[in-house]
Amino acid sequence: MVRPVSELSSLIETRLNELDLNRTPHDLYQPVSYMLSLRAKRTRPVLLLAGCDMFGGNLDHALSPAAGIEVFHNFTLLHDDIMDNAPLRRSHQTVHKRWNPNVAILSGDAMFVLACQLMMQTRDECLREVLEIFHRTAIEVCEGQQMDMDFERMEKVSIQDYIHMITLKTAVLLGCSLKIGAEISGAAKQDSEHVYEFGKNIGIAFQLRDDLLDVFGEGTKVGKQTGGDILACKKTFLWLKASEIATGTERENLIYWFHSTNEDPGQRVHHVKAVYESLGLFELAQKEMEKYYNIAMHHLDAIEVIEENKSVLSSIAGKLMVREH
Amino acid sequence: MVRPVSELSSLIETRLNELDLNRTPHDLYQPVSYMLSLRAKRTRPVLLLAGCDMFGGNLDHALSPAAGIEVFHNFTLLHDDIMDNAPLRRSHQTVHKRWNPNVAILSGDAMFVLACQLMMQTRDECLREVLEIFHRTAIEVCEGQQMDMDFERMEKVSIQDYIHMITLKTAVLLGCSLKIGAEISGAAKQDSEHVYEFGKNIGIAFQLRDDLLDVFGEGTKVGKQTGGDILACKKTFLWLKASEIATGTERENLIYWFHSTNEDPGQRVHHVKAVYESLGLFELAQKEMEKYYNIAMHHLDAIEVIEENKSVLSSIAGKLMVREH
Questions:
Q1: Among A91, A97, A167, A204, fewest CB within 10 Å belongs to which?
Q2: For strand A88-89 and strand A92-93, is the pairing parallel, antiparallel, or unpaired?
C-alpha cells in the first residue's frame, strides 16, 4: 500500500522544519529560512518520496534528498526573482526586496550548497547515481533560465524552442525528483527512466496549462491578474502559436496590442485575448497539453509495478492538469 | 619522488582546457570560459594535486577534482565581484560589467554545478568524504563572504572576528584543497587533518600578508595602487589593530584620514600609513602572520611521510609568504 500525498507532504514539512537555520551570519541563513517558510505545495519533494514509495523503497533514505530538492527549487526561485526583478513571491516580498540583491545572491548560493548536502544523505549504493541526476538537472535548469532570458530579446522563437526551454527550466526537475526517489528505492533501470519521462512530460503539460490559465483562467482563482503574461510581453505558447498562424488585420491587431505597453492594461488583455479566441488557441493549447499528458501516462503505464502503486502518481498528474490556482 | 609545482600546474591547465564550454546557451557558458581563461596561479588545484602526490596517490583520480576546486574558486570570485561591484578582475573586465549582472549570477550558478560534477570524478571509495569536505567548505566560504559584508556596516570588529572571517572566506579553501587530495590518495585520517590545518593556517598567514602588502608593498610589484584597502575603508588587520591601540591625536588623525573620502587619495594613504608606522604595525602584522605560518609548519612536520615528500608544500608555503605580487 503506497502512502497518500497528504502523508508524504507532512513527512517533508517535518524534515524541512528539522533543518538548523537559526545560525550565524543571520543575513545568510534568515533568507533561507524565510524562503522555506512561505506556503508551498512541495510538489517536487512529494514526487521524490512518491517515486521511492511506489517501488517499495525505504522513505528514511529519501527524506533528506526530498528536502534537498525543495531547497534547490527555492534556490532557483530566489535567483530567478533577482534576475526578473520580481517584487513578490507567493504573495510575500522577494528576498532581494526584503533584504537586498547581495543578500539574495549569497543566501541563494548557500541554499544550493545546503541542497547538495541534503541530497547526499542517502545510501552509499546509490550516492553517485543520485548526485549525477541531480547535477545534470541543475545545469539544465540554469540553461533553461538563460534561454528564457534570451527569448525576451529575440525576434523569432519557434514553438519547438519554447518547448525545449520549458522542458529545461521547469519539466526536468519534476522528472529528476521522481528518478532520484526511484534510484533510492533500488528500482530497475528502465522503470527509473520511465518515471523520469513521466515527470518530465507532466512538467511540460503543467507549464502549458499555466500559460493557458494566465489568459483563460479566472483571475481570482489563479491568484493573479488575468493576462499577466500578455502585459509582461511574455513569449508563451499562446503568443508564439498566435504569431505563427495569425494573418491580415488579426495579425496587426495582435502585434499592436501585445507590444503597446502605453495602452490601458485591461484593453491590451481584452484585445489580445480576442485574437487568441478567434484563432481557436484555447483548443490548440489544450491539445498540445494533452499530447504531453498522454506521453506521460504512456510512461506511467510502462512501469512494472502493480497498478495500485501508481495511484499516487496518476492522482498527482490528474490534479496538476485541472489545477486552477 | 614528488612532482614539482610546474608539472602540477601544467597538468591542471591541460585538464581545464579539456572542459567542453563551447556549448549553448552561449551567455551561460562563455562567461565560464572567460573566467577560466584569465591568467591565474591555480594555487588551489596545485595544492589538491600536491596533497594527493605527497601520499603517493594516483593523480589521475585527482585531476578532475583539482579542476573542480578551481572552477569553484572562480565561481566565488564571479559572485563576489557582483556584490562588490568590482569593475576589474585580474586586469580584465568582470563578467557583470562585460555582460550584465543577470548573466553573472546565472553563469556563476552554472559554475558551481560544474564544480560539483568535476569533484565527483574520483574513486567511489572516497566520494562521500571528498564531497563532504567540499560542501562544508563551500558553505563556510559563503559565511565568510557574508561576514565580510557585515563588517563593512559594523562599528566595532575585533581582531578575533577578523581572523575568523578570513579563515572562512579564504583560508579553509586552501585546507580543503589539500585535504581532498589527501583523501583521494587514501592518506591516514590524522595526516589528512594535519594537511588541512597546514593549508588553513597558511591561508590565514597569506591573507595577513596581503593586508600588509597593500600598505607596505611596492605598488607596481603588487599590481595595484598602494593603500587600496585604506581608500576603500576596508577593515583589515592593520586598521583593526591600529584602531585598537591608537590614542590621543594619533587616534584622531587615524580616524579622520581613514574615513575622509573627500580628501585627496594620496594624502589619505600617506597619513594613515604614517600612523600605522608610528604604531609599529608593520612588525605587529608580521608577527601575527608568522604565528600562523609557524602553526602551519608544525602541522606539516607532524605528517608521517618522508621529508622529501613535504618539499613541495614547504616550498609553496615559503613562496606564498614572500610573494610580492
A1: A91
A2: antiparallel
pLDDT surpasses 70 at A219: no
End-to-end CA distance of chain A: 30
Looking only at the bridges linking them, the beta strands covering B88-89 and A92-93 are: unpaired
| Contact residues, A window 127-186, toward B, CB-based 8 Å cutoff | 127-128, 131-132, 135-136, 138-139, 142-143, 145-147, 149-150
Residues of B in contact with A28 (CB under 8 A): 142-143, 146
Q: A122 is written with which cell numbers?
A: 542517502
Residue A217: which pLDDT band, with cuts at 50, 70 and 90? confident
pTM of the full predicted structure? Answer: 0.96
Chain B partners of A150 at a C-beta cutoff of 8 Å? 25, 27
Question: What pLDDT, on a 0 to 100 scale, did the predictor assign at position B319?
Answer: 84
Q: pLDDT, tens digit, for every residue of A184-203?
A: 999 999 999 999 999 999 99
- The rounded distance, in Å, linking the Cα atoms of B96 and B114 is 19
Q: Is residue B222 pLDDT above 70, yes or no?
A: no
A128:B128 CB<8 A: no
Closest A-chain CA to B82: A102
C-alpha distances out from residue B19 to B29, B48, B180, Å:
11, 18, 21
| Spatial CA neighbour of A317 closest among A301, A293, A289 | A293
Tell me the CA distances in angstroms from A28 to A64, A301, B148, B236, one per residue in order.
Answer: 21, 45, 12, 22
Going B43 to B44 to B49 to B54, the CA torsion angle's sign is: positive
CB contact at 8 A, B214 and B227: yes
Nearest to B110 by CA among A150, A139, A81: A139
pLDDT at A136 exceeding the cut of 80: yes
What ipTM does the predicted assembly reach?
Answer: 0.95
Give the pLDDT score at B325: 45
Question: What pairing do the DSSP bridges indicate for beta strands B88-89 and B92-93?
Answer: antiparallel
Q: Which of A111, A30, A28, A133 is nearest to A67 (CA)?
A: A111
Question: Would you call A16 helix, strand, or coil by DSSP?
Answer: helix
Contact B289, B19 (CB under 8 A): no
Residue for cell digits 557583470? B96
**Grid cell for residue B162:** 577578523
- Across the strands, what pairs with B89? B92
> Length of chain B, please?
325
How many other CB atoms are there within 10 angstroms of residue A96's CB atom?
A: 24
> Is residue A104 less than 8 Å (CB to CB) from chain B?
no
Rounded mean pLDDT, B232-238: 93
Model pLDDT, residue A323: 55
Distance of CA B139 to the CA centre of its chain: 15
| Residue A325: pLDDT band with limits 50, 70, 90 | very low
Cell reading at A134? 541531480
Question: How many C-beta atoms lie closer than 10 Å to residue B18's C-beta?
Answer: 10
Q: Is the distance from CB of B48 to CB of B10 less than 8 angstroms? A: no
pLDDT score at B322: 74
Judged by a CB distance cut-off of 8 A, whether residue B117 touches chain A is: yes
Q: Which helix (H) or strand (E) holds A27?
A: helix A26-37
